Amino acid sequence: MKNSHSLLSGVAVAMCLLFGSSAMAQTMSDSDFSASKTRVKADYKAGKKACDSQSGNAKDICQAEAKGKEVVALAELDNSHKPTIKTQLKVSVAKAEAAYDLAKQKCDDQSGNPKDVCVKEAKAALTAAKADADVQQKTSEAAEKTTDAKAKTNSEVKEVRADAAADKRAADLKVAEEKCDALASTAKNNCLKEAQAAFGKR
Q1: Which is the most buried residue in 91, 101, 111, 144, by most CB within 10 A?
Q2: Whole-structure pTM value
Q3: Among 133, 113, 134, 90, which residue's Cα sits nearest to residue 177?
Q4: What do you get for the CA distance between the two ends of the chain, in Å?
Q5: Where are the beta strands (DSSP E) in 123-199?
Q6: 136-181 pLDDT, tens per residue?
Q7: Where are the strands (E) in the chain, listed by range?
């Protein structure tokens, strides 16, 4: 059985290498933006067509990778064209979603409980990335506001962080519970109790 943690770690590293760092800080002209957007779409079509030489899940993985490149590249273009807090966060979310879609396809190489665990872990990684993006957005908004408005926004940041932590725990709990399904009887019950103790509501 493949180690799903290793798989997701590999996917995360692959995404970093594949999609690179976040978009450039300097703005892009309208003409450059349009030309770059056309090029990204052309690259996607070429990448997807190259997948036709493969079959089965290998083809699905290839197509997910090609689509992920396009989605992330377009998000980075938007951020290069007219950078804002929102466009920066869209890049982060696009990378996370691309990594999730690719991981799901890689999970199809497995079956039964290992596959279920793999998918749950991929989903947990996506949930964590989106939760972190929400916290980052609120924190950035707080930094831009006047002193009078900061107190309220800082309170909102704390709430968002609490929600993000809860979302991560819930996702981790689903992963742990899925792993318990591979066990039987007393061992499974003990496993579920340990999962609730580690990741249950606090």
Answers
A1: 91
A2: 0.70
A3: 113
A4: 33
A5: none
A6: 888 877 776 666 566 666 777 788 888 888 889 999 999 999 999 9
A7: none
